[in-house]
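Let us work through a complete example step by step.
Step 1: write down the sequence.
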Amino acid sequence: MGIRLEFGEESDLAPAWEIMKAAFESDPINLVLYPHGRTAENDEKTLDDWRKEIESEPYHRFVKAVDDETGEMMGWAKWYLYLTERAESEWNPPSTDKSPAEPSNFASIFFGMLAEKRKKIFAGNPYCFLKILVTHPTHQRKGAGYALTKWGCNVAIEKGLPMYVEASNMGHPLYRRCGFEDLEKLTYDLRPYGGKVSSFTLMIGQPTGVDP
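Step 2: predict the structure and record it as tokens.
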């Protein structure tokens, strides 16, 4: 089976969203953000945010992995390519991860914490940020995730820039394979929000170690 990478278009957003819902169905953060499941209103708000992102966000790259034989989207990635220095007002990508789980305000706390970590590490300096990587459960371990990660890594190598990802435990081995190294492991207690203690790892890669 061959895998080809293409830039995603607006018509790919709805299937990409379905892939994301399937992939993160049992994710501990997702269960806290959406304790009663995602609603049609949540879906439409997210898709609208993504449309605006494609239209107006200059750093954003939406890349999809397609099965050569069937034409099916296997997975996708959202890379932010910060190739030049930026003003402080541009240090964080817009967040489309909105939570209906009020009044806990967990989304603001969690994603705000990640944004502060990125500010501390990079400020306005150039780097390549893998914000989201998603593979449909039926296509996992077939090479789509590696291809999507490698795509951005090769941009970083070409430009001589570091690369960064906030890795789940499941994704951690893949990112290690692609040249990322552990920077900091974060443990977060979701029990006050009805979840459990979980962790993920901030990872950084230097522009070496992945074939262009």
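Step 3: interpret the result. Helices lie at 13-23, 28-33, 40-56, 106-122, 144-159, 172-177.
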